[in-house]
Design brief:
The chain contains seven helices and nine strands; from the N terminus they run E-E-H-E-E-H-E-H-H-E-H-H-E-H-E-E. The protein is of the alpha/beta class. Helix content is 24%, strand content 15%. The strands form two sheets. The chain has a seven-stranded mixed beta sheet with strand order 5-4-6-7-2-8-9. It is globular. Helix 4 packs parallel to helix 6.
Amino acid sequence: MQDDQDGPPPPPPGLYIVEPPAEVQAAPDPGHPSQSTEDPRLDFLIHPRILLTGGVHLLGGAPLSGKSTVMAQLLRQFVDPDPLFLPEMSFAKLEVNELGVILSDRPWAGGSELYKKVGLGDVPHYALGDDPDATKFLSAPKPAPAGVGLLRFCLERLPKTVKLLAIDVLTNAFCGDIFKGSHVFQHMNALQILMKERGLTILGICYGNKLRQGKTERYQRAIDRISGAAQFRGAAESVLYIDAREESEHDYQRLSWYTRY
């Protein structure tokens, strides 16, 4: 983990944090050889070993901290990389039609400007707030896990070419009751099966906890600042967290990225 430094960077040191070290791998156990014929190597969309394919990755932050803006910038890096944005990370090359965006809490008009500004105005997208059929689907009885059924409904409205799916917001719409471990476990298990079926990787926005009394009264770890954090610790392959201005001790907002790998 890089230490904070005083003063404005450019770009600020410690803007993002990657841990644990990238090249740490478990040694094979010769007494229990694997029976699988599949390639055991893990595939990542961002290096060094950040965005594992087929995983759920969370982007958290307080309201108005810039989560949706960061999401749009991240997607742009796969199509037309900006050398000044996360310059030490290498992004896989994807076509626009391999990206997808789902908005669960607003019409597309409320999020489209961000994607136009980064050159992704034609990214495949679907917004629940634009579709009258979504209202009917939400009000009808659904088998459990209901959130994953809703995601399948949304995916039917996106092209089959999508490989990286950005969901704004993920946790409160597609993961059940985020404060109940059994709900989250059920939904995350079904999400993983769905991603394997569709060849998807999910990058989903989640809400951050409110500040208590000030900068010194917040949770230290990024995962603990996410609403329902205790339920998601075992389910997310990586967690991003962007500090809001009122959370930051500097004149910039820090983006931290914690990964299992």
